[in-house]
Amino acid sequence: LLAAGLLLFAVLRPQALRAEDRTLIKAGEDFPKIGLKAPAGSRDRSYLGISRGDRFTIGDVRAKVILVEILNVYCGACQRQAPLYNRLYSAIQSDPAARRQIKLIGIAVGNDDEEVQTFRSHFKIPYPIIADPEYVLHAAVGGGPTPFSIIVRRDPGSRTILVADAHLGTIENVRGLFKRMK
What pTM, to 2 d.p., does this model score? Predict the structure, then answer.
């Protein structure tokens, strides 16, 4: 089933995933204020600091630093990155200062809620992953292949969310990533 999904993804992927004519978002740029479907689970809502409403933006997440991982559940590199980001999440949660200031969130482009739940269950993902079936946020950050990790931070003195760093592809050095985020 997974192989069939990968083949289908590779053959039928929408134009939004092709980066030929797009520029990926980069450090120093404002992160787009795109409304996302709020997680249904109270644990995910509590983790993100979202109490009400059906929609939220990354700017609504209560954290100083947020790692936004753009992924697709059928992407092999995204699947390889899942255990690495689980380790990152554990490192953040075990550090009292980091736990209050740093959050992780996945945005699953081209996937629906059921596919996201299957992926989270299979890879034991403890942090929220939000479906982006219409590629809305994906397009707003420049489209492109997955995984695409974007570290954002609050601009002191304003409500703006700025891109601090962006990385296309798998990040193997979880310890280094954690240090940069701290």
Answer: 0.87
